[in-house]
Amino acid sequence: MTRFRTFVGALLYHSSGKTFALIQQLTFVAVLATPVLMLLIFEPETSSVLGAALGLGVLFAATLAVVLAPRSGVPRVLEWLVPVAGIVACGICRYATYPEGAVISTLSLVPSLWLVVGFRQRGAAVAVLMVVLSISIPSFFVIEETMNFSTVSRFLVFPVALALMSFAVIGILQTLEAKTIHARQSLLSERRSLAQFERTDRLLRGVLENLNVGVLVMDADGNDVMTNRAQREIHSLASPETNPDRTEAGHLVFYTDGSSIPAASRPAARANRGEEFDNLEFLVGAPGPTQRVISVTARAVWAEQGDRDASFLIFRDVTEQHNLLRAQQEVIAAVSHEMRTPLTSIVGFTDFTEDAMLDLEDSPARVAALDQLSVIRRNAEKLSKLVEDLLLEQQAAVGRLTLDLEPVSVTRLVTDCVEGLQPLAAQREISLSLSIDHCAEVVADSLRVSQVLDNLVGNALKYTHTGGRVTVSVGPAGDGGDGVVVQVADDGPGMTQKEASQVFTPFYRARSARQSATAGAGLGLALSQSIVEAHGGTISVRASPGEGARFSFTLSNHITDRPQRTRA
């Protein structure tokens, strides 16, 4: 069928080229000669042999001209003369076989169509003119009929129909040519766009392949779509060829404390569930010198409909930074530990000296000495508190924070904290209120949770202006009440989003805190985060400049084997 269409297309649309012209002409000769010869054989009394011979002779002469044309193509003049000769041959053969051969005139449409296709408006004009001269006008003189309006109309209807058909064909051809030009331009534009896309894709893949961070892109079903060289190197550590279990469950992936990460809690699995996180650290590879510390960040890509379209993870090898930070933490822990003994001695001897001074007679020297001892005690206690916080933070950072877990009432802990800080609130003329909407017990270390409460409520009182308000509330965590959430809200100076994102970093203090007269080392919130996460909970902050801040943390009310770690 395709070959037939190609053949017909060649007949209709190729008016140049010897091969196509010869095919057209021979086909037309067969179509015209067949009915003429049949009429000469079966209707000899109404047919003129001489006229038929003349008509077919004109047709054969035109065919011979095409046969003798150069191989390079039919000359331009023959492109005109051959169709004209075909129209003339149709007219002569019509009259030679009239009346039975009257319909032969319709075959002149074929060469007329060649002229229209090849030369458009000029070809249509010549075709109509030759039909009029070869068929219509001779009809007035050769055919013996009464001349009237009906007869004249019948003779003229064919050239009029040919003219209308020619205009229609020209319109179709122009439309096809316009569409062809547009299609070619579109195809050219698409090819250029495709070439540009391929070039951009090569550049991006080249950049991606040479990045010193690992990149993993997954589709919505969790299938790997794209990885780069650095990621493949990390994966080879997680699943070496010597590993007996090459499945996901057998990958050598560990928390920073050395315990294995369950498959459902690994970064790729979490990202495939739509989670987003930053700088999550874990160990990759078998324990030993080749094991690396990897920091991963995950982000989701959302489609316009709101569905997750893909997820990508960025892996960074932070082994050197981790080891350096660990060394710094160990130095701080060692120094802090060494400072506790002399600080304890200072506080102890200060107490002893104060007791001894109280036994002396009252005098200006005794009063001055007691004031000086009071300053020594106060500063030694501050330094001791700082050392304890440093030690606790370092224990949490290296996963050594131990908890004494037992069922405790969060309501009681919060109530005790608020009551203990009411004098400080009254001194600063700040309204401190408590709202309780949940009285569930949780499995926790009551001393550590109290430390978190003291840090959060104490900070709110420190940074809230005189006449301000601090509100502490306790309520169920989540829609199902699975756990408890504690919120501490104030109307103090607040902080920017950038400051809020760093407020749980050790030794970080927001700009408003640094500019205030309130002293602090920036360890309280970092330590609070470590304690809450060691309990398996979460802590967060929402704040805006000039609109205060709201800290909240959650604890589970189920007795479970929660992991005793704060960094993973």
From TrEMBL:
It catalyses: ATP + protein L-histidine = ADP + protein N-phospho-L-histidine. It is found in: Cell membrane. The keyword Kinase applies. SMART domains: HATPase_c (SM00387), HisKA (SM00388). This is histidine kinase. It is an enzyme of class 2 (transferase). It comes from the Bacteria. GO terms for cellular component: plasma membrane. Keywords: Kinase, Membrane, Phosphoprotein, Transferase, Transmembrane, Transmembrane helix, Two-component regulatory system. The chain crosses the membrane at residues 20-42, 48-68, 80-97, 126-143, 155-176. The keyword Transferase applies. Its EC number is 2.7.13.3. InterPro entries: HATPase_C_sf, HATPase_dom, His_kinase_dom, HisK_dim/P_dom, HisK_dim/P_sf, PAS-like_dom_sf, PAS_4, Sig_transdc_His_kin-like_C. GO terms for molecular function: histidine phosphotransfer kinase activity; phosphorelay sensor kinase activity. Residues 334-559 form the Histidine kinase domain.
